[in-house]
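Take a careful look at the protein record below. Let me know whether the structure tokens fit the sequence:
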Amino acid sequence: MSRLPKPAEGSWTEHYGLGTATVTYEGAVSPDFYDLEREAVFKRAWLHVGRVEQVPRAGSYFTKEIVVAGTSIVVGRDTEGRVRAFQNVCRHRGNKLVWNDFPQQETSGVCRQFVCKYHGWRYNLDGSLNFVQQEDEFFDLDKGDFGLVPVHCDVWQGFIFVNLADRPRESLPEYLGPMVTALDGYPFDLMTERRVYRTEVQANWKLFVDAAQEFYHAPVLHARQNPPALAVPLQQNGFEAPYYQVHGPHRLVSTNGIRAWELPDDKRKRMDVITRSGLFGAWDAPDLGLEKMPAGINPGGVQPWGLDSFQVFPNFLLGIWSQNWVMSYTYWPTSHNTHVFEGTLHFVPARTPSEYLAHEMAGVTFKEYLLQDANTLEATQSMLESGVVQRFPLGDQEVLCRALIEETQRWIDEYKNERQGG
């Protein structure tokens, strides 16, 4: 459903047709709800699994453990240059096909073909079976019938997505919709210097999604990341993001933030001044070679603009900063109350030691607020599971949190109806 930006008056929540009543967080504590999410959401939605730079040439591959869907996939580039995805299972006796010393760990590399460690069956990069050990001992075996099981795979702006359904309900561009595809033309491909962080969080995946789609908590939880001259007023007066958008299952929050490079020295941290970097990335933005930003950037016309945080349903965040760098998050559920968080910072490669130091500082700051969020969410999870409180109020700055609750429930209701309808 297409929803227009908020008018000058009214609340974001009411503008987007969302309820205003208290909400339940059953979806964060119920194993039964998690089981429904697995089937209704993660086995049917388009899921972000990586970047094309991870498979730069023919034979490059990486594996992805999708625990929430009970499977593992291998993503690679074939000899024609196409990015493909397959279920990571040998067609002979069901052994995991691609792994190194530990079967549950993800891996990557380059090969000419995929070879099963168990009995040596071999598969071409396009998934076709090309060799069976002692083939003459099998009965009426047609190798053409036993290629790897393909997974629907597509690429948008260099981001690789897969869909585990037998038949996706819509193509990837249709799924992303105009709010996200309006970013077409942004030079993500220039940002090949990356810092990747991965950790397991003892909290439901949606709680971490919520932490990244509202800034109501920022003046309190992240207060010490700002100089006291700024932190105290923010704690006293709060902070409100100026623009929200909901379009289909996806959501966007834009903010102006604190432009440290424009502040006087007494309102800046000393290390930030030394490195010319900090909370919102390097102060000196690289040239992206664009005459004009794509229409999807800062659609609310926020001035001064700081960040667009796109929440792509169900579990992918794409954050585009005014200082010309990008962050991406993916939240992979592993149970109803645990998930694996993957965060990546994307920079235009540093040309000098000082630029590299600025990227390092941005990475250190990123890890700091990531740890603050994760620690708080584990505390939230433990008390939600206590069951002491059942209903919770959400403010207008938490409009996207409410939208996620309603959208997840909508997917589950549709799944239930489809099952009942045969």
